[in-house]
Amino acid sequence: MTDARPDDRTTVVVITHNRRDELLRTLDLLRRLPERPRVIVTDNGSTDGTGAAVARDFPETTMLRPDRNLGAVGRNLAVRHVHTPYVAFCDDDTWWEPGSLARATDLLDTRPRLAAVTARILVEPDGTEDPVVRELRESPLPGPDWLPGPALGSFLAAATVMRTDAFRAGGGFHPGLWLGGEEELLACDLLRQGWWLAYAEDLTIHHHASRLRDSTDRRVLGLRNTLWFTWLRRPLLPALRRTGHLMRTVPRDAASVRAFAHATAGLPWVLRQRDPVPPDLEDRLAALERARRDSPARRYVG
Q1: pLDDT at 61 over 90
Q2: CA distances, 235 to each of 124, 149, 220, 270, 281 (Å)
Q3: What CA–CA distances, in Å, run from 100 to 15, 103, 205, 235?
Q4: Rounded distance, CA 184 to CA 288, Å?
Q5: pLDDT value of position 83
């Protein structure tokens, strides 16, 4: 049953870039939520009339307009304007199920060391589960009994409600990664600080993949950022093994070559900022790596 009460504990943060029509659909669906959350949109340098359309149709929405495409760091900018204890992330092609935001905040209210809860994702228009949901549901990580679901080693920014103070304590999204698997580094740093992340089965978000998405570019960025995260946080031998595994298993095509070339070009700053995790956290990262090798959601194709 949907809780029909307004709830002022959560602010929704959305980033967008040249997806005006999809953003307007998402804002309409967020406006209809019974929780009536405040919504902040970071428009990452759109040139398709996004800003004017939002101002016309959704004047209650806070619109931030940096002068360039900040990628995931656009969420950092938005969180500076958040005054609620929790922030719910979604993209311009995702939207929260009515009642899910209230349930998420109830879970976080009673678990002070829980940094974030990630929702079940339904792919529209068919309403089927995203392949990543199985990975979340079957997470191999142990966790305390008070978690509302399986302990996670990362989260999905398009489907997560996070404690605002935890986001800030973790430093937000790293500007070097820009976009594409950017959550993994922030999640790792939160775990290192003693926070917990969890999957919550009774939370739902809907995803209608944008028709404007460039899947090849996203694959390049995702693979590049996986390599950068590996060398930023994994100890030397696991980093070498992970890099070797990726070199052997990713598709042998131009996109993979681009990803490895970009990753190599960024090694100077990555190695300057390298800060490997302690053994107990590396054990968790290694368990996740083993579990993800057979996940249909972790194949660098497209």
Answers
A1: yes
A2: 40, 29, 24, 13, 11
A3: 20, 5, 8, 38
A4: 11
A5: 98
